[in-house]
Amino acid sequence: MASGKLRLGVNIDHVATVRNARGSAWPDPLRAALLAEAAGADGITAHLREDRRHIRDADMEALAVGLGIPLNFECAATDEMQAFALRLKPHAVCLVPERREERTTEGGLDVAGDEARLATYIAPLRDAGCRVSMFIGHDARQIEASARIGAAVVELHTGHYSDLHAEGRLAEAEAELAALRDGARLAASLGLEVHAGHGLTYENVAPIAAIPEVMELNIGHFLIGEAIFLGLEAAIEKMRRRMDEARV
Ligand code: PXP
């Protein structure tokens, strides 16, 4: 069984999605982040997409100044985002693949296929003191490449597991879970800190939270949706309990 407290990073992108739907100033992502902090979140994640569809530059700046807990700045590995991150100096920078036409981050980053460029790309971020994280699938090639380029963290993409679980394809979800467990073990053995996230809910979080090498989960869309029914603090507290129960 797993041991040690698992950190919960709350992704507040979709507070900005709701705000932007009406072009107004509310709901305010910083206010949500501060509530999340009060509810026991260990960190806040926000994704500044190239198309600024939810989080905007000013949101990131407000989060960097206003938060008392670590900020995980999620972005694509572009020059624009590197410059932004170097100015902001967040606690962590999580690199993700990004395609304009996708609804959300669909797959993991191809670190192995872009190894030399990514090694050069992350060097100044590391020098600036940011913990650099690679959002990848569980395959060994990507994990080993992430270790070689000097990333501090890999975040394993749980989207496929979550989809299989939601579709009731439980045998396939179990196989995906086994692969995530193997990936987490390999990553930790290479000295990488292991995080996980995407598509996690009250129903599917326990087996991921129970993976002993996983130190942090990043959860967004479900929690922001659940906040409609429970309120944000209660929604986060309930997730926190599910995670802690799985961790015992
Ligand atoms: N981690 C990463 C790297 C992500 O890109 C996302 C989605 O923005 C999440 C975690 C959170 O996923 P979800 O919103 O499905 O909980």
How would you characterize the overall build of this protein?
The model has no long low-confidence stretch (mean pLDDT 96). With 248 residues, the protein is an alpha/beta fold. The protein contains 11 helices and 8 strands. Helix 5 crosses helix 6 (140-149), helix 7 (159-166) runs antiparallel to helix 8 (170-189) and helix 10 (221-230) crosses helix 11 (232-247). The longest helix has 20 residues, at 170-189. It starts with 6 loop residues before the first strand and ends with a helix. The chain has an 8-stranded parallel barrel with strand order 1-2-3-4-5-6-7-8, surrounded by 6 helices. The radius of gyration is 17 Å and the shape is globular. It has one domain: Aldolase class I (TIM Barrel). The protein has helices at 13-22, 29-38, 57-66, 79-88, 115-127, 140-149, 159-166, 170-189, 205-209, 221-230, 232-247; strands spanning 7-11, 43-47, 71-75, 92-95, 131-136, 153-157, 193-197, 214-219. The structure holds pyridoxine-5'-phosphate. Pyridoxine-5'-phosphate binds next to strand 8 and helix 10.
Give the domain tally.
Answer: 1
Question: Percent helix among the residues?
Answer: 40-55%
- Write out the strand line-up for the largest beta sheet, numbering strands in chain order: 1-2-3-4-5-6-7-8
User: Which band does the percent of strand residues land in?
Assistant: 15-25%
Which CATH C-level class is it?
Alpha Beta
Alpha plus pi helix count? 11
Question: What is the general shape?
Answer: globular
Small molecules in complex = pyridoxine-5'-phosphate
- CATH topology descriptor: TIM Barrel
Number of strands: 8
Name the poorly predicted regions: none
Report mean pLDDT, rounded to a whole number: 96
